[in-house]
């Protein structure tokens, strides 16, 4: 059961971050049910935009193994969300600059960790994709 939960969280985190980095509204609707049990899946649009900004900072401006702190304050009945985002590896894959990010999120007593590779596209945006280790 624990392995299934960890796999679900890893997939949810990767999908969630991919959704945050792209304008993938149809994809968001498709995965909304799947992600609903995760922190990243319950972020409001404002929270997601704030996280996206921190992910962008980590990808574009942060050295490997340095931490970008992220905090979104409590709002109404919604608890605050805290997190860290760290690039942990950088390499070139298929001609693209790619970075592996890891993140830890916390809302109330719930915690979530994810990691995944993101590669810089020719238009300057980052896209989640598989990169051989």
Provide an overview of this structure.
With 133 residues, the protein is α+β, with helices and mostly antiparallel strands. It has one domain (2-128). The protein has 3 helices and 5 strands. A 5-stranded antiparallel beta sheet has the order 1-2-3-4-5. It is elongated, with a radius of gyration of 14 Å. Mean pLDDT is 82; it is low at 2-11 and 23-28.
Summarize the structure.
The chain is α+β, with helices and mostly antiparallel strands and 133 residues long. It has helices at 2-21, 25-35, 45-61, and strands at residues 68-72, 81-93, 96-107, 110-120, 126-128.
Q: Mind describing the biggest β-sheet?
A: 5 strands, antiparallel
Q: What is the arithmetic mean of pLDDT?
A: 82
- Counted beta strands: 5
Quaternary structure classification: single chain
The coarse silhouette is elongated
Spatial strand sequence of the major β-sheet: 1-2-3-4-5
Strand percentage, roughly? Answer: 25-35%
Structural class call reads alpha+beta
For the termini, the CA-CA separation is: 27 Å
Extract low-pLDDT stretches: 2-11, 23-28
Helix fraction by DSSP (H/I, runs of at least 4): 25-40%
The number of helical elements comes to 3
Into how many domains do the coordinates divide? 1
């Amino acid at each position: 059961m624990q392995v299934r939960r960890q796999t679900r969280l890893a997939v949810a985190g990767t999908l969630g971050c991919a959704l945050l980095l792209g304008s993938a509204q149809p994809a968001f609707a498709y995965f909304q049910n799947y992600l609903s049990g995760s922190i990243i899946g319950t972020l409001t649009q404002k929270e997601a935009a704030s996280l996206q900004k921190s992910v962008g900072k980590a990808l574009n401006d942060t050295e490997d193994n340095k931490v970008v702190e992220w905090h979104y304050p409590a709002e109404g009945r919604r608890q605050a969300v805290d997190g860290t985002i760290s690039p942990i590896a950088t390499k070139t894959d298929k001609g693209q600059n790619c970075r592996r990010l890891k993140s830890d999120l916390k809302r109330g007593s719930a915690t979530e960790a994810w990691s995944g590779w993101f590669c810089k596209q020719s238009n300057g945006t980052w896209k989640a994709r598989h990169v051989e280790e």
